[in-house]
Amino acid sequence: MPQKVPYVQFRRNPIASVVCQLRFHPILRISGGVADFQERIRPHFPRYAPQAVQEVQLNLDALEAASVERTQQHRFMTVDGVFEVLLNEQSLALTAKAHKNRAEFQDHLKIAIDALEAEYWPIAPTRLGLRYVNHIRPAQIFDDRQFEWSEIIARGFLSVPEPLEHLDNSQFMNHIVGEVGGAPLRLPRKADADMQWCCRHVSPQACRQPIAWF
Predict the structure, then answer these.
(1) Full domain range(s) for residue 41
(2) pLDDT > 60? residue 189
(3) 209, 178 in Cβ contact below 8 A?
(4) Are residues 81 and 47 in contact, defined by beta-carbon separation less than 8 angstroms?
(5) What pLDDT shows up at residue 15?
(6) Are residues 82 and 160 both part of a single domain?
(7) Is the overall model pTM greater than 0.70, yes or no?
(8) Which of 8, 48, 133, 156 has a Cα-to-Cα distance from 88 of 20 to 30 A?
(9) Does residue 60 form part of some domain?
(10) Is residue 77 a contact partner of residue 111, using CB atoms and an 8 Å limit?
(11) Residues 174 and 126 occupy one common structural domain
């Protein structure tokens, strides 16, 4: 049985945004209008804007031509724009652009999920995803002097907590994206390997610009 992981809130929070997405089997009624759904969340998410999305799908194994799927999403935002709900026929997602703590995020997520269940029950979920995006800016810490990543990031920060590491039907991964070159790198999952990879392949000189950890 998984153990309960202690909740820790950092004094200097490096989290830039959090995204939780619930994917489900298509609900065609959503394409017919979301006015009733909006009324349920409008006291908390009063701003609205439609959003056209193009998804490109590639099948490299079959060497098929890329297919482009155009969909319409509905964006509901708080007045300050910090929290945003995205709804389409196959998913609902909540994004927090200034994450303070888990309780606040869960409260906003519950509002969106409760509205989805009230309007479109039954929901047949296919996937639940949670993504944390951390921004770490070495230049704000060390100015121009040389540094080691181990001075900034503890190894445990990059690793998956042991009680969660072997959950069924779950995948955990780390990405690092630097603004120099813009190429994402997938890091190994183990903490030691993460730190060694980071120190070997990402030089301090290349990281004067903000670095985003996923």
Answers:
(1) 15-55+65-131
(2) no
(3) yes
(4) yes
(5) 83
(6) no
(7) no
(8) 133
(9) no
(10) no
(11) no
